[in-house]
Design a protein that fits this description.
It is built from 7 helices and 5 strands. The chain is mainly alpha-helical. It has a 3-stranded antiparallel beta sheet. It has a two-stranded antiparallel ribbon with strand order 1-5. It is elongated.
Length: about 190
């Protein structure tokens, strides 16, 4: 008989079901850390947009036309900036302040480009509902906003700390029950004695 255990076999009675191994060593980035990261990213984008706008006004003779082109170019710059950093580094410069990364919510591996695009588009409903989708990070156990839930991602950093660890809880298999017997471990004492 082969000594290796079948990784797809059901656990034996009383065996522990281990947490997701890929998530060990990660902690979720807190709401306020994400706010600071977002502010840092917006400052960088603001500076880049300002430089772009000045360049367009200098090159174009019509100030109103330069303003319109600058607004469109600024939006494109934002999309390219964010998606480029997400795809190349799994984080924007603001998240890099905390050594945080965007990870797949199930495997904790690198998200796909499709997940990054869904995450970016997920900002639209998250902000259109008066920002509730962004504030959701403060109340969610896994510190995920609507954009994270839409894309199936989490924002985590390596290490330990006051923030909740990014692992799934350990679940124990229920104890075996003999035929005709009532399980009494989970019942209050008054009910179990009946």
């Amino acid at each position: 008989m082969n000594d290796t255990a079948n990784p797809y076999a059901a656990p034996e009675h009383g065996a522990e079901i281990q947490p997701v191994q890929a998530g060990q060593g990660w902690v979720y980035l807190s709401f306020w850390q994400r706010v600071v990261a977002s502010i840092a990213d917006n400052i960088i984008l603001g500076i880049l947009g300002f430089i772009l706008g000045l360049g367009l006004v200098y090159v174009m003779n019509n100030e109103k036309q330069a303003e319109m082109v600058s607004n469109i170019a600024g939006w494109i710059l934002g999309v390219v900036f964010v998606l480029s950093f997400w795809i190349a580094r799994n984080a924007t410069p603001g998240k890099m302040i905390y050594a945080a990364e965007i990870r797949d919510a199930v495997t904790y591996g690198k998200p796909t480009t499709g997940q990054f695009i869904k995450r970016y588009l997920g900002y639209i409903p998250a902000t259109l509902c008066l920002g509730v989708g962004l504030l959701w990070v403060a109340f969610d156990k896994r510190k995920r906003g609507w954009h994270d839930m839409i894309a199936g991602t989490v924002v985590v950093k390596r290490g330990t700390g006051a923030t909740r660890p990014a692992t799934r809880p350990v679940r124990r298999a229920p104890p075996p029950v003999r035929p005709g017997a009532r399980p009494t471990e989970d019942l209050p004492a008054a009910v179990a004695d009946r």
